[in-house]
Amino acid sequence: MTCNPNWNEIKKNQLLPGKSPQDRPDLITRIFRSKFEEFKKDIVDRGVLGKVYSYSYVIEYQKRGLPHVHMLVIFENNDKLCTPDHYDSIVRAEIPLQTEEPNLHKAVFHHMIHGPCGSINHNCLCMVSGKCKKKFPKPFVEYTSRGNDSYHVYRRREGGQVSILNNDDVFIDNGWVVPYKPWLLLKYDCHNVELCGWINCVKYMHKGPDRVALELRSRQNCAEIEQYVDERWICVPEALWRIYSFEFSRMYPLVIRLQLHTPNQHLIYFDCQQHVSDLLADDENSKTMLTEFFKMNCDPDLICAK
Ligand SMILES: [Zn+2]
Asked: Which residues form the domain of 292?
């Protein structure tokens, strides 16, 4: 789910004349958060895509500061998607007809069209060595299927041409549509959704924050002084997200990785002034999360209470 700076809650009601959404990072942060809270209720509690067995999400920021969230949802066994019909019931990747679904047509046209890049716009940010790194436009296919990599191949029938840039010479078609769920797109005026049956998406979600490597040089003697500094990149909305103490990530059910060790071979941290005999006498030093986890599993009352 991405933050849309043109949401009515940001643009229409809150901005002073002459101000743009970028002038109110506090507003962007709070409204994105409240929309995401509602989004979570829809996905996890109300199960609008299917009954959720487990989920995980991470909040991230674009370079210019707009927040977005990557959320991974795993369905319960009875709601797992197994056939192309199931896939199509969750995700669409075509431009709906204006005559049949005018609101959805407008929303897809505004939010779910990639680029356009390639021959229409060589300077698009997705272009690397003359090619779109996200492989748009996608080929036309009659039926949705599981692809050979992490991504499904969604149904994109030939046609659906719409002119863009108010120019009847430039058209986009179903090959340019970013996958979406109609109900969510209409409710939130943003978001995209992908199906994935592979573990790769977990790795992508937890790729970590943006960083930048700096090189500091003395003006007079830059050849000899080369100092490299590895820095975190924090934009204003991210700083506000932290100040408001909003949650950055969550995993359900929670999984904690315990540090493994063989008996009595665990690490102990201590003050260098302390005597070894005192350290050994302190019973707390014989406990680790792993030993306490084993102990808890031996206590039937504790297991029942949990
Ligand atoms: Zn592209």
From this structure: 259-306
